[in-house]
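Forum > Structural Biology > Help requests

Title: Can anyone predict the 3D structure of TonB-dependent receptor?

Hi all, first post here. I have the sequence for TonB-dependent receptor but no way to get a structure on my laptop. I'd be grateful if someone could post the structure tokens.
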Amino acid sequence: MGARRQRRKTNRKIHSRGRGITVILKRNLLALALASAGICAATAVHATDRDAAPAAAATDAAQDQTSTTTDTKDVAAKKQAEAEAKKAKDLSAISVTGFSKSVVQAIDIKRDADTIQDVITAADINGLPDVSISDALSRLPGVTSERIGGQSSAINIRGLSGDFIETTLNGREQAATSGSRVTQFDQYPSELINQAAVYKSPKASLIEGGVAGTVDMETVNPLSASKQYSANFNLRGSYNDRSKETDGAPSNGYRMSASFQGKFLDNTLGAAVGFAEMYQPHVADQFNGLKYNPTAVNLPNNQVLPGQNYTSEGFELQQNGGTERRKGYMATIEWRPSDSFRLKGDGFYSNFDNNSFGRGFRVKTLANGTFTDPVVQQNGAITGGTVSQNGNKYFTVQTTNDDNETKTSVASAGLNARWTGGPWTITGDVGFSRATSDFTNGVSWGLPFVGMGTASPAVVSDESVTYLLKNLNIPSLSFNRGYTNLNEMALAKVGVYPYVYKDKSRAARLDVRYDLTDNGFFSAFEGGARYSQRTYSQDRSIWEYGNDFGDWENSGQAPLALSNSNSHVVCFKGNLSSFPCFLSINSLAVLAANGLTPNPGKEWANDWTQIQSGSVDEDILAAYLQADIDTQVGGRRLDGNFGLRMVHSSQYAKGLQNMGDGQGVPLTDDRGVTSNNYMPVRRGKKYTDWLPSVNLNYHLDDDNQLRFAAAKVMSRPPLNKLLAGGGSWIDGNTYNMWGNTSPFLDPFYATQFDVSFEHYMPDQSGALSAAFFYKHIDSFIEDQTINPFDFAAAGIQVPINPATGQPYANGQYQTAVNNDKGGYVRGIELAYSQVFNMLPGAWKGLGFTGSYSYSQSQVHLTTNLAGPTQKIGLPGLSPNVVNATLFYGYAGFDTRVSVRYRDRFIASQMSIDSQTVYYAPETVVDFQASYNFGNGLSVLFQAQNLTDQPTKTYFGNEKQTGTLQWFGRQYYLGFSYAL
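Reply #1:
Sure, ran it for you. Structure tokens for TonB-dependent receptor below:
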């Protein structure tokens, strides 16, 4: 899915926290948070704005923090007065604009945080080329993004994938559209997000769930805006320079947003609304290799290859294209009748429609063909040769016509009330988040036939392909025949496979804080409780016509003839121009011409649609106690917190188990067929966890800090792995089950330690930090076959053998388990940011921000997708990651260039099935330039993926080519107008 975003002007406000008064940069809410037109905030922030900040802070000291998971509430501390005055003086001496401002803002937030964290601010996101929140997050130390269709979507933190990341919006847990718990950040328009923080060390008051870390996104707080009223309108057009290589793909798109915020009733009532829309094309030229299987290779004259050999299932070569349209809405209303009470309600909604197609070839089941001159690698994998049918129609060359449609939506809303009376602060919050995903995978395959137009057409039997994989380069490929003749080609198979996910989270929490002003060690005590209910459902269905290999006689579903009205010849261009031409087929038009309409449903004939459908219910009760400390050690300040979080979890899943032999209950499928072989089941468990944590920050002097953090953390299993359904088969007197899911899974648990040294420039213009982290993860989740498995001990009913009158014997169980292959993940993070205010004249606008991360792990998983079983590393971990941005702003002009590099890593990619592969190293370069005319009007030019960086993957080694995919450069030109 695609990516996005941008922001605008900020103003600084001082408020207090539990450990003393600190300086936090506050956003001009809508003007900054909803500036989508791609203009990096270039309006000058004058020194007089800085001087006004301390005065404004006194009025605002009791306000803000929408999220109860972010920094603790306001409290005055006399011993910090001098430090506060010094900081305010330093800030008043700085004048920064545009992207420079977001860098300074992020530095201040990191400096004053009570956990180890990194932050991106609204100006940061809106200051493109980070057109998505995922892009912006991936510029933080230890954070990387995974590109899906060329756009950043999911992220990894410290070498751990999205399964280990907790995501919240305004402090509330977010439901996910991915079908698991992984957040797809391109669902969230950056125009509507004000700030995002990555918590790398937890605290007791933070919602559990982030072994890798927690990402907390925030929308706006209207009463914190610097202006009484503001409005913003943004519009920019986009162009993709590879779109003309893909037949039927559009070239142009747009992004727009509009917003308004205001303060009313003597600044006691604030309101903000925002809207953002994106429409853009996505294209990709693609070669995609498929996994390898241990199969005997057919050679001429019954020859046999020596040793164990592994043959790929085949490969695809396709033109991919389509469009993405996303609309987002945000509304906030905030009421503060007095300094002691604040009531805030907020809502967020986003819907994302993705329509995509793939046209080209699929060479399928190479092992069924006869090889001539096979190219065999050292590990036994065959990566080239000539493969012929020789009468075996189960090796074939298909023309592919895939049509996929994805409709996703996220809705979140909540009400937050806070009351402060003397040392007491009580905060209550209720909210919900709902995510839906409706993905329809439509496939169709054309095959060459002889005898089309007769009563008995037959698939040709003389096909052959000659190929040679060339590592991470375009392979050589040729066919012995053409695939564009309408008199031979026919539509042999059409399949429609919907996947529907629904995920909903509802929660209520209460937090109480008692502030201490003269204790000398403790600054506050906190406690609270949270109750949440999360429900997840998955629904699978199917509609099919024809046969993969044109073997239609048994079904009577004959191949469908093609015509010029529903098919046309397409030739590859660009990187794949050496490949043969093919027929692009409008499958729906062919079906309609034959009186056929797809009608997907669940059916017993394909009982995986029933087994893989089901629901999961989670009830979570959490409570915590936390002590905030602020004391002196060795004449230096030590602050932080320590606490304990208790989490009681109840997880139960509902599904269907295949009992066989009519030993279930009567159930009717969507085709009207009734079966007695299946039984509804509900399985699961309850468990309680205790999660201690400590965060300490030792101030070596005014500009240097040493942090230490330790905690036990947890992440719950992916929701789709908790399903309870199970298929089965009976082998003699043994009962066997499959499913590769389990409602008995434990969470991921880890013990982690963090040490961070942070140096801040005396003039607040820069920072240098070095961090070390260590996590020991107890276990991971993997699919495993257990044989024999004690079904009764697990509460799984075994059917009766009619021949004996006794339950069948235990057979194998293909399930998901918590393995015993835990291990450490450790690494270092180095970061440097600097606004060079010391330079003369116009050079003051120059700045740099960058980071380097190194991670390693002893965790090894196993895979056989490359052929021989081999150990692979931890999915999501890149040993070396580099992020760098050079920026410049002066007299209304603002520009920057950003570079992101990550080493090879392991992740899944979607082909015919999900495949775990190595991703080759990649470097992504983005550029932006903008100019602010000073009257509210700004213009912007932006180029994303300047070097047209492809995605390249491979299996066990680079000789076994996986995916080669080029997405093109994306250009933007637009304007923004602010009032």
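The longest helix spans residues 98-112. The longest strand covers residues 674-701.
Shout if anything looks off.
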